[in-house]
Design goal:
Elements lengths: L1 H6 L11 H9 L9 H15 L4 H7 L2 H39 L6 H40 L4 H26 L8 E8 L5 H19 L5 E7 L5 E8 L4 H5 L4 E8 L7 E13 L14 E4 L8 H6 L1 E5 L4 E5 L5 H23 L19 E8 L3 E4 L5 E2 L2 H5 L4 H13 L1
Parallel strand pairs: 4-9
Antiparallel strand pairs: 1-3, 1-5, 2-3, 4-5, 6-7, 7-8, 9-10, 10-11
Helix pairs in contact: 3-7, 3-13, 5-6, 5-7, 6-7
Length: 426
């Protein structure tokens, strides 16, 4: 088994907790023998990726030459087993999309034409990504051969490892995209962060989460648009809203919903940990039937906050909408007019209600049971420990990452993938 050997290596050692054993029990590949082969491959990969999520420069100091060589071989073997088949399949899909474009009169139906062209562009992007994966594999194998011919050149092995790791990242991304089968998974995402009560520390923590998600999007080659930001006078933020308009953003980020805790030891070195909290909510964007969904006007309270000072202009445009039957509230302030913000908030409310209806298994939003709506403040998602040791533990999946700063720098891929994988398995 790959996982048993990986977990036992020094790169995953914890100095305070026996996190290696915890990680092993959670992610051992033997636990997923009966799972779907596609999900099993990804789950094994996630364990390796999370275990080695520390800075790439550090890993060379922690593993020997033999271990580094074995990691290259494992990554190449795994990618070769999937890449060629995937490339052939995606190229066939791309060709079919090109045929549809040639046969369809793009001027006849602009809306359908747009969807066709988007699918063609997405197919081309997937094919290019898999071709890049193929090149990375060839690069890793070639550099490894040169290293062996040059009497085991350690520097060349490091280059080969970098290439194999890049190939693994591309394959992980591709496999995750194939696991996104939910009704809203292909939509963009509106991510809302709200700081917990108490002093300034939750506000600072909320801003750190904001930066983490922005950096994550940047690492994927996309951009997150901050459409609402409410700063706290002493520093940090009270709340913020980000829109990620790229495809599948909701599928990737939906597992982030809930409370995120930052834990740190107290200054007097007592055993008690101090906690700062913030909640994250994720709402799908641009749902196809959101515009057609009717909500009785009597069920809505539409208002604008009254705030004076530097933010007065922005708050004059802000629209808040509360849905009385469910108690759900949404806000929009990122558009250039009061009307545009009203439409954006209304569509956001519809999308949120549709997700809740799906979660409760009811046919329409009028059947939503208010008492069964999940309170995000009671839904713990993740713990980030900053002192006396550094560790990030995802409560829902059990996955752990030993480098807090690495995670806060936007490297949350293994955590996101773990949520996607757990949804498929369950």
């Amino acid at each position: 088994m790959v996982m048993a050997t990986v977990v036992s290596e020094p790169a995953c050692a914890r100095t305070v907790h026996d996190a290696a054993s915890s990680f092993n029990s959670t992610w051992h590949c033997s636990l997923v023998k009966k799972k779907k082969p596609h999900a099993q491959l990804l789950q094994c990969s996630l364990g390796i990726r999370a275990c080695h999520s520390i800075n790439r420069k550090d890993i060379y100091k922690q593993v020997g030459l033999f271990s580094l060589r074995r990691k290259i071989e494992e990554a190449v073997l795994r990618a070769e087993g999937s890449a060629l088949t995937a490339l052939e399949m995606e190229e066939a899909t791309w060709i079919k999309q090109e045929e549809i474009v040639r046969d369809f009169d793009l001027w006849d139906d602009p809306a359908k034409s747009y969807d066709i062209l988007v699918k063609l562009a997405n197919s081309a992007k997937v094919v290019d990504s898999l071709k890049d994966l193929k090149y990375k594999l060839e690069e890793a194998k070639l550099i490894k051969q040169l290293a062996e011919m040059n009497a085991i050149d350690y520097g060349l092995y490091k280059q080969a490892y970098e290439a194999s790791l890049d190939a693994s990242e591309i394959l992980d991304q591709y496999e995750m995209s194939k696991l996104l089968k939910g009704p809203f998974d292909m939509a963009g995402a509106c991510l809302v962060i709200k700081a917990g009560p108490s002093d300034i520390y939750p506000k600072i923590w909320a801003e750190q989460l904001l930066n983490m998600y922005l950096k994550w999007a940047e690492r994927q080659g996309y951009e997150g648009r901050i459409i609402d930001r409410c700063p706290f006078n002493g520093g940090g933020i009270i709340s913020a809203t980000i829109e990620f308009e790229f495809e599948s953003a909701y599928g990737y980020l939906s597992g982030e919903k809930g409370v995120h805790y930052l834990l740190r030891g107290s200054q007097d070195e007592s055993a008690q940990l101090e906690a700062s909290s913030a909640i994250v909510d994720v709402i799908p964007m641009s749902l196809e039937n959101a515009y057609d969904l009717e909500i009785d006007s009597e069920d809505l309270i539409i208002s604008s906050p009254l705030i004076h000072g530097e933010q007065k202009r922005q708050t004059e445009l802000t629209v808040c909408i509360q849905h009385l039957p469910t108690g759900i509230s949404v806000k929009s302030s990122g558009e250039r007019s009061h009307f545009a913000n009203k439409m954006k908030a209304l569509n956001r409310l519809k999308a949120k209600l549709e997700v809740i209806a799906m979660e409760q298994g009811v046919g329409n939003i009028k059947s939503i049971r208010k008492d069964n709506i999940v309170n995000l403040w009671q839904e713990e998602t993740r713990r980030y420990v900053s002192h006396p040791y550094k560790l990030v533990r995802d409560v829902k999946t059990g996955i752990e990452m030993p480098d807090l700063n690495y995670v806060l720098d936007g490297n949350i891929g293994p955590l996101i993938a773990a949520h996607i994988n757990s949804r498929v398995i369950s």
